[in-house]
Description:
By secondary structure, the chain is mostly helical. The chain has helices spanning about 10-25, 40-50, 60-80, 85-100, 100-120, 120-140, 140-155, 165-180, 185-195, 200-220, 225-240, 240-255, 265-280, 280-300, 300-320, 320-335, 340-360, 360-375, 380-400, 400-415, 420-440, 440-460, 465-505, 515-585, 590-615, 625-635, 655-680, 720-735, and strands at about 620, 645-650, 655, 685-695, 700-705, 735-740, 745-755.
Amino acid sequence: MPLLRHPMPSYRSLLSPLLVLGLLAASLPGRAEDIHPQLLKASYDSLLTRLRHSPADTSRVLLLLQISQDLMNQYDESGTGLEPALGYCQQATALSETLHFPAGRIGSLYVLGQLRDYADQGQLAKLLFRQGIALSQRRGYRRLEAFGWFYLGETYQQALPTLPDQLACYQRARTLFHQVGDQVNEAYVLKTTADAHLQGHPEQAVHELLAAEALYKAAKYRRLHYTYDLLSATYRQLGDYKEALRYGLAALESAQATQDTSNIIGSLYVRLAVVHRELLQYPEALGYYRKALTNFQQLGQSLNAVSIAGAIARIMVAQHRAPEALVFFTRATRRYATDQPRVVERVADYLVEVHSALGNYALAEQYAAQMRAYLRSGTADTGEKTSIYLTLGKLYLLTRRYDEARRCLQQALALDRFDGPLPRAAQLHLLLFKADSAQARFPAAIAHYQRYKLLTDSVFNEKKNQQLTSLQIQYDTRKKEQNIALLTRQTQAQQASLRQREFQRNAFCVGALLLALVLGLGYNRYRLKQRSNQLLEAKQTEINQQNQSLQHLLAEKDWMLKEIHHRVKNNLEVISSLLDTQSDYLRDPAAVAALREGQNRVHAMALIHQKLYQSDTLSVVNMAAYIPEITEHLLESFDCQDTVRMQLAVAPVELEVTLATPLGLIINEALTNALKYAFPQRRPGTITVTLAALDPAYYQLTIADDGVGFPPGFDLAASSSMGLTIMRGLSGQIDGRLHIAPQTPGVVIQLDFEAVTSPAHAARPGG
């Protein structure tokens, strides 16, 4: 699937209000500038009303330019004509000349240049922008000059021959925005520069995007999701899926927090889905893809809707559900069957793959013919070409047309090498390996397979056979220990033999032959010692090599334990997903609540194993990082983020996993009870969680709320609810003292327990 167009706002829509304010600042020096969002329809209608009653002064020029800009923004969104925008711009130009209003003349040149750029008159647009820049320089309008350099940079295509000229324009604009203290527009230009660097220089793009984020935050600018989304895309291209996922989630959170979700939320869902899909986490990927599909269908974006439906179908094929994939994709794309050529080609692309999986090669070939016709039309962009060549290459490979398959796959690989994700490059090398192997092109096949393994191992290392590795480690360890013991016994025997020979030689040293015997024995001893030293040195070298091998095996055992924790975490998450899926089929609220509580308990245990395999140590859990994640998950699970506030005071404590697991479940049960009963009818309140070290091996956990407390007549000692039973049982398991009592207001739960720290962590602070 080709990448969707990046969810960035039009540079004209983002900069247009500032351009008008920049004109006003040029005519009225010293006036502060505010950041305004793109106009809504009601605001646009208000501008038209003001224009009808405005006199022929500089304010009317600004109104004309702002209306012209907004009409171009509407062209960006819906493709309406540009003639009305040109009419308003010409009025602004004529009035600026009459009033001798230089800022208005500059603004008119910029708007007219944008209109020419829209009409594919790039050279004329460049000329108009340069005229505006020159006039800004003569008048000393540095902010307006900055806009001019930015607009001039936008006239260049993002291609290698013109990239230096484009980046030079962006740098001039950024420098001027920095000089006038405009952090928001400086950050936006820096972000645009990073977008240009994304192809070929992703490391530089990361550096620039982080700098843009810092500028936005310094200016208290809240709409950071566009920057976060670019960071997610860049880290995915670099193969850093942890950071890609982190910034993808941050982008989604920022868009929702600023209520800027109408045109971007679907693309953010896609970004997260792609990351999960490339990590082979299909359930999570399908969840985000379905949300994105609903959004694009509501917006009427046919190309994006078809692409997302195709991505869902591909995951179904990967899960060996090809018949179901065909039914789903046919139903989801039926309304787009006669749409524009680009959409028809996308539908054909996915149908080729689904029919190939079903073995319907004749039907697949019919749709492949549509793809080849679209490719010959010359309208396909780079992403579409890559997808077409990849799909055709797979079809040719399945139908044993190996020369055609190799040609298509090599073309896809050439297009993909600058900005393609690592899993797709790995897939291309694997397919080329199969094509070369089928025709006995073994050197090329081996090269492609080595590249495939290098790329997959950089992302996935869990496919290695851990069971065989464990058995081999145990076997090799025992063998090395036996060899070391044998070498020790041999050394002791050799030393005893040398002492015995020395005694025998001394016994025969008598009489007149004493001098000769001493010389002979001395020479003999010298030779024996030399040979013995050589033998001992060789044995010592061998022992050192064995020790190095053992160290390597120990490191592999640590790695294996991390993988085991990873697998346990994944299995627990599968259980959690199954509970969540089961709840969709239940109608009894009590049953749904019980499943959700069970899901939260599973999540608390899964989080323990996640912390273990992400840390440098494999036996202790950092409670200061673990407890906040439990509380945040429970708030989201009960949808209480807006009403219940968590206050955490957790000491930097590291506990053994055998203690951290029951302690996490106790916290889960206590917070669950508080969120269910302490704040009825979404009553606001606060829950305080404290973990304090009373002495180096004795701790106190306190969970208190300011809710409604126990109901009248409630007998805590006689209560046998599941939550209280679990807390009491787990407290006894860790030899802790559990105390639950009412307070004014609310309830307080206190657990005193002792932690016996393992020797490996006895010296660690907070352990």
